[in-house]
Amino acid sequence: FFQYCLSGHPTLPCNVLKFKSTTIMLDCGLDMTSTLNFLPLPLVQSPRLSKLPGWVLKDGSTFLDKELKECSGHVFVDSVPEFCLPETELLDLSTVDVILISNYHCMMALPYITEYTGFTGTVYATEPTVQIGRLLMEELVNSIERVPKAQSASTWKNKEVQRLLPAPLKDAVEVSMWRKCYTMPEVNAALSKIQLVGYSQKIELFGAVQVTPLSSGYALGSSNWIIQSHYEKVSYVSGSSLLTTHPQPMDQASLKNSDVLILTGLTQIPTANPDGMVGEFCSNLAMTVRNGGNVLVPCYPSGVIYDLLECLYQYIDSAGLSNVPFYFISPVANSSLEFSQIFAEWLCHNKQTKVYLPEPPFPHAELIQTNKLKHYPSIHGDFSNDFKQPCVVFTGHPSLRFGDVVHFMELWGKSSLNTVIFTEPDFSYLDALAPYQPLAMKCVYCPIDTRLNFIQVSKLLKEVQPLHVVCPEQYTQPPPTQSHRTDLMIDCQPPAMSYRRAEVLTLPYKRRYEKIEIMPDLADSLVPLEIKPGISLATVSAVLHTKDNKHVLQLPPKPPQPPASKKRKRVSDDVPECKSLKPLLSGSIPVDQFVQTLEKHGFSDVKVEDTAKGHIVLLQEAETLIQLEEDSTHIICDNDEPLRVKLRDLVLKFLQKF
Amino acid sequence: MPEIKVTPLGAGQDVGRSCILVSIAGKNVMLDCGMHMGYNDDRRFPDFSYITQNGRLTDFLDCVIISHFHLDHCGALPYFSEMVGYDGPIYMTHPTKAICPILLEDYRKITVDKKGETNFFTSQMIKDCMKKVVAVHLHQTVQVDEELEIKAYYAGHVLGAAMFQIKVGCESVVYTGDYNMTPDRHLGAAWIDKCRPDLLISESTYATTIRDSKRCRERDFLKKVHETVERGGKVLIPVFALGRAQELCILLETFWERMNLKAPIYFSTGLTEKANHYYKLFITWTNQKIRKTFVQRNMFEFKHIKAFDRAFADNPGPMVVFATPGMLHAGQSLQIFRKWAGNEKNMVIMPGYCVQGTVGHKILSGQRKLEMEGRQILEVKMQVEYMSFSAHADAKGIMQLIRQAEPRNVLLVHGEAKKMEFLKQKIEQEFHVSCYMPANGETTTILTNPCIPVDISLGLLKRETAIGPLPDAKKPKLMHGTLLMKDNSFRLVSPEQALKELGLAEHQLRFTCRVHIQDPRKEHETVLRVYNHLKGILKDYSVQHLPDGSITVESILIQATAHSEDQGTKVLLVSWTYQDEELGSYLTSLLKKGLPQST
């Protein structure tokens, strides 16, 4: 039982579990923070960006000035942005049997895994995860492909060169493993390997292991996974939430009795309260608009945006914002809004009830109907005609490195009337803003991360009581910036086992039992014997069949009747064929009763002698003696087989067979 | 011997008021709770007093499962739960849970408000009844209690229709409800995995029909509608609000668009718009094509189909009207039918099955003079067409499902006895499984032969699998273990472990036999001869000659001593434990035969 840790990112995990005879990948998150090292991809030529000076080394060498540009004291790579993939060398990924996906944010590396490693297995995910995951990938591919960049920088990645660079480029890990974005055909190929599953569906893997997705409460279709055999249970908790937002609530009860609980995807902002952040978001938005400014909300096209729109739906009239246009710009904006309305079964109770009426579960349907919310595939086309200011724009990508958001940053960055509000917690907002400095626009940081915080985790662990907890190393110590906050780490007994990127853990449990089925005819033939009150036993001699990791016991076949041939038998024909073991014996033989039994069976000359440890029973005429001791019986006789067998059977009557 | 008992309270050799009791491994499950469209008296509901005479239904039934929202499958539910009294769980899929109360309310209105019946369930009862419903996902394993689990599979037929697997331990039953094995314009085909249930309870509405291709039927339908409209006639299509109606609407909508037709299409009752909303919101339950394209174009938003007003029926000129209910037994469809029946230019198209006793059934069986309420005689001059659009599996489909699920027994319900009989023979011939078709109130008992799951200690299992490379098929290997039974746990462990766990000591039983051999040679030479003899015969065993002069065959010890009186006779002491009984016994008899002449 091993765990191979392919990603060090605690909320974008990628682990491989060797469980019984199966190899299971848990999530394949893609670390996109690497893109922060790159210059933004502008949709329209940006004079500011193209005029940035090339970076010059201290000694004056300029050989990197084509690849690296400097902006307000930070150095950026001027190239197509690249992502940091999960480790692909730690184990042979073509041996992975299945990949379990917990939510749409944790599948972004899927095409790299399924299309480039010889992977031939199956991917399991829920329908909303797949549909929304597809939208996220589509948006990503689209926003990178629509701005073709001639240059692909690689000199800076040279180890000798990287050493000379300023931080954070100098410290960037595994730069040689960074990859460009995949293409739509690769996305489609990867998604075609997914098999859809529902919550609490039991999926058998090779008869050896059963996996089950459970609602995790974090996003539409998000799941935790149970990986179990008949005797071992591993719970994989990844991105769970106990807050009531739009998804179905988290199923905690089913996580009970785990041998190992792997805990990933906790909140990235443990000190922020999501409700408070939503409030701040609304008030900052209202203030900016009232002052005639525009609001930019860099966001993913699905997830928290639904909750934000719902809050605004309730808020805009009272805040006097009914005439302010809300724009949602993404190549998948329409799809995302439509898809959110059709997953009734994956929604929280309140939203489900609305569908039963039947009404759309999310109020953004009404916002669209009343023209308060408009969505566009991009800033080009219809949007440029409809565009009115002041307004609120929701658009991606939250890293501010590609997508329509780049355009709005360039457009609105110079005016202090405008505000950019960061709600997605995946990227440091200061790093995200760095290539836009100096910036006049206001920046507000309202990260909304509904995933479990440490208080909720410790409550959860108390409740479900796993024997062992495994988690990324980041969770076993306070955050580096707040080293005094010992409450911001996992506290459990025994202490959690931690992992880091490229590590292999041995999981601490031991199997002792396995399931086997006894066929009905064999069961009928068994003779149970009550050995102690409430405990019965039966000796079983049966044929073991093992197929597809399932074991079955069958009645042994009847020995074939020896053919009644007249042919003279060779001596060796009689050699007992296989070592057919006799059962073990237990019990003791009371000498008096034994002697009585012997007499009853026609032995008239029985003599008993006492010895140190027991008795010797003598059958004088037969020259046979039987030593009886507490835990042993020894029959010593002449070679008189009928007599020996008779004595044997008399002795066995007093003993129990095992 | 464990058994599964099945008793239909409705739908036994009949279509209507589906309600089937199943007893499996001590659990009682009721499948569907429908009403009968052909009756207006007591017979319209199943006879629940059969379940228990004086106890509470809740004590007797572990759960109720509703397969889909059609009233012949759920119409008696409020009566059953609120008037007879049942408080246990009722399971259905999300779309069924959403739509079922609307149809029940509709049914209640027609019965109470229009027909003036009293002593019927109320709106509040429908609400209270629905509170007892637990919605299930497709393929979700729902643990009803510790032993009983159920799982839903996609059944096609109507939005949200499901087949259910009911499982206790190794025993299982699959109930199909109504299903459709071919995808249509809005739903997908039923699917089940190879779950090998002990019993498959299948509907058999179209037990003897093998339907031609769907395309042909669609073309026929469109042609007939088109011709009638062209000659200025009116077309009445009686449907149920949800289901076939949407499929035919999609069909006509696209046809109207393609042919650029102008004649109005109406859809009766306010239910339609609502119904279409359900289809939009539960689009994940429709077929692949609709699901894929719904973002660009939602198939359930119709341009040509408008809401119907009662006054429109008297408008001159051609029109097409979808009206409920589908069997012409009451409501708007019957009203319009009465208005239009006298004109031979008009046409009524029955797109689905009609239960005996309904007007629909009468005109389909050729009756042209109908006795209506108040002894009025209605002469039917309009054309009557029947087109099988109802989404039931035909004979081919039923056989296909049996092939998919591989049941050990099949039981037919929801069909007519004569047709069932035919299908039963076909199933028995082709699959060599028993097939049953009990009438209402008749109990079928099926013997099952479940395996007994046991925990085996890994040590014992590894020992057994480690002994040889691959087990020889001809010489199966025997495994020995001790089955410990304590409370309800069964564990198979090695005999040693069993002894240890019970705190018992092993009792060793040993035999030592004296075998006399005539051999004048020295002792050690005799021993050597014995050794060579045994070595030659016992090729598969480990035979060893030890330095102390003794011989071992596996764990059996042989020592030789000279006879105290007769130097020409040697005494061989063969000593073995009970565990080596067979080999020991064999050795003594072998040695008794003497040694072969020395070579």
Topology record:
The complex is a heterodimer of chains A (658) and B (599).
Chain A: E1 2-5, E2 15-19, E3 22-26, H1 47-50, E4 68-71, E5 74-77, E6 83-84, E7 98-100, H2 110-116, E8 122-126, H3 127-145, H4 159-162, E9 178-179, H5 184-191, E10 194-197, E11 203-205, E12 209-215, E13 223-228, E14 233-238, E15 260-264, H6 274-290, E16 295-298, H7 304-315, E17 326-329, H8 333-340, H9 349-355, H10 364-369, E18 373-376, H11 382-386, E19 392-395, H12 405-412, E20 419-422, H13 429-433, E21 442-445, H14 454-464, E22 468-472, E23 497-499, E24 503-506, E25 513-518, H15 520-525, E26 529-532, E27 535-547, E28 550-554, E29 585-586, H16 591-600, E30 606-610, E31 614-619, E32 624-629, E33 632-638, H17 641-652, E34 656-657
Parallel strand pairs in A: 3-7, 7-8, 8-10, 14-15, 15-22, 16-19, 16-20, 17-18, 17-19, 20-21, 22-23, 25-28
Antiparallel strand pairs in A: 1-2, 1-24, 2-3, 4-5, 6-9, 11-12, 12-13, 13-14, 26-27, 27-28, 29-34, 30-31, 31-32, 32-33
Helix pairs in contact in A: 2-5, 3-5
Chain B: E1 3-10, E2 19-24, E3 27-31, H1 57-60, E4 63-65, H2 71-74, H3 77-85, E5 90-93, H4 94-114, H5 123-131, E6 133-136, E7 141-143, E8 148-154, E9 162-168, E10 171-175, E11 199-203, H6 214-230, E12 234-238, H7 244-259, E13 265-267, H8 271-281, H9 288-293, E14 305-307, E15 319-323, H10 331-340, E16 347-350, H11 359-364, E17 369-371, E18 377-379, E19 383-386, H12 395-405, E20 409-413, H13 417-431, E21 434-436, E22 444-447, E23 452-457, H14 458-467, E24 478-486, E25 489-493, H15 495-502, E26 508-518, H16 523-537, E27 543-545, E28 551-553, E29 556-562, E30 569-577, H17 581-592
Parallel strand pairs in B: 3-4, 4-5, 5-6, 10-11, 11-20, 12-15, 12-16, 13-14, 13-15, 16-19, 20-21, 23-25
Antiparallel strand pairs in B: 1-2, 1-22, 2-3, 7-8, 8-9, 9-10, 17-18, 24-25, 26-30, 27-28, 28-29, 29-30
Family (chain A): Belongs to the metallo-beta-lactamase superfamily. RNA-metabolizing metallo-beta-lactamase-like family. INTS9 subfamily.
Subcellular location (chain A): Cytoplasm; Nucleus
Keywords (chain A): Cytoplasm, Nucleus
